[in-house]
Write the structure tokens for this entry.
Amino acid sequence: MIETVASVPPWTAYLLAAAVVLWAPRRVGTAAAAALTALTVPWVLSAPAGSSLTVAALGFEQVLFRVDGLTRPVAALFGFVAAINVLYSHGTGADARQTAYALLYMGAGVAAVVAGDWLTLLIGWELLAVTATVLVWHSGGDAVRPAFRYAVYHLLGGAFLVAAVALQYTATGSFVYDGGLTAGVPTILAVVGVGVNLGFVGLHAWLPDTYPRPHVAASVVLAGFTTKVAVYVLARIALDGNLVVVWLGAVMILFGVTQAILQTDMRRLLSYHIISQVGYMVVAIGIGTAAGLTGAFAHLTANVLYKGLLFMVAGAIVARTGEGSLKRLGGLAREMPLTFGTFLVAALAITGIPGFSGFVSKGLVTKAVESTGGEVLWWLLIVGSVGTVLSFAKFGYYAFVRRPPEPVAVATGSRVLSLSLILVAVPTVLFGLFPGVFLGGFAGDPAGFEPYATSELTKALAVTVAGVLAFALLKAPLTHVTPVDVDQLLHPAAAAVAAQTAAIAVGVGTAATRANAALSDRLGSLAGRDSPTAETTLRAALWALTATAGLVLVAVTLA
């Protein structure tokens, strides 16, 4: 039985789930899709280490999936959160097509993670970008332009990664993994390409621009996969560490947390915190030690859980109040007690309070950095942690504690929504209470790390006190600060080109739709029949796609 399971790629479950969601009744589709994606957890965990599926359909040896110390924990984690995301989508009223797009997106992420060669990874990587764009675009309205920007950024990043893989094949004659990429130009190109998905400062603008715009369930899905797949790929590329990567991660930590402190939109605040938290993972991989590798993947796991839960909480607030700005919220602890309770779990985890997942994972990253002798780097991580406490003291105070400036109407939440919040909160706590159970499943070596040593508890207490005091002192001044993203300073011309190109693309698509409808009506009347609606729509879509592709090429060239 195990051999049979190990002969089928785990991402096939996501394809089946997407089909079921589209064709089955809503409740049946949700239940079946959640079960199929959840089954990938025992699927991955039961497959023996070294299990793989190799083909040569394209004339090259491709390993469609391979189970090892890096793939197993990430693929299992993705299976768990994918099942929860399906339930959350149902609980927040997402339609079947959005859920299907989300399943295809999550399946592409799993395909990239379990790939055993660079070519298969590239296919999963590009499908991840395409399906994410469609997922965001599906929401329409304010999400259309950010979706276009997302596509342009990720196509550029993908181009760098393609070039790196091509050079790797030229140097080695094989796409199959054999350590990291060849040193020199291939590694540099790959780090830049992956850096787009990671959110390196300067390449990050797509993230806070995109994640707050679509349906709340789409935001939750996006938060759990794109940057985390990139962390996994970075570990594949730079297995022995890289000093430049370390400092790129440190900049991400400080920039992300600073921007997050200044935000008033809940999902935008959380988006900047993705950049900051991924920075910890990037630093841990960059230092190149076994403890750093364990810390990176432990923090990846903890972050997917608590950051996903925070996005779910924000989404629940938006879904039940219709409001996403902290300026207009307050008093929700009484109106939404379960949501408030799960917020506390996630907030205590991300701020590194003992008993929760972030305390363990962030402590391991900090300890790994300390063991390398990087005193300045260690202090940067601590400052980032203080800023994180400040951010979530702000979030909790304005959303749940203070008296709202105006009465907030709260709709009744569904049981499925409540269940999905609880299901993510539970492992967030268990990770913190039983760290040994989790740390043993990650690659690398925690090097005897003791999360509940007196030094770690003292550090956590000092960081928490400093963060809370900082919020108390800065609460009033922060209300008068207008945040300015570095993207507005570094890329004004590129931003203008992207905005104009997106506007032109939308205009061309609309004009093409109208022109083709008119032409089909005329041809249909000449033929003595009604206009074929499906044919008209298809032709219009092809015209719009062609025009958009051309404009994307122009935008990329100009940028």
In short: The radius of gyration is 23 Å. Residues 523-559 have pLDDT under 50 and may be disordered. DSSP finds 23 helices and two strands in the chain.
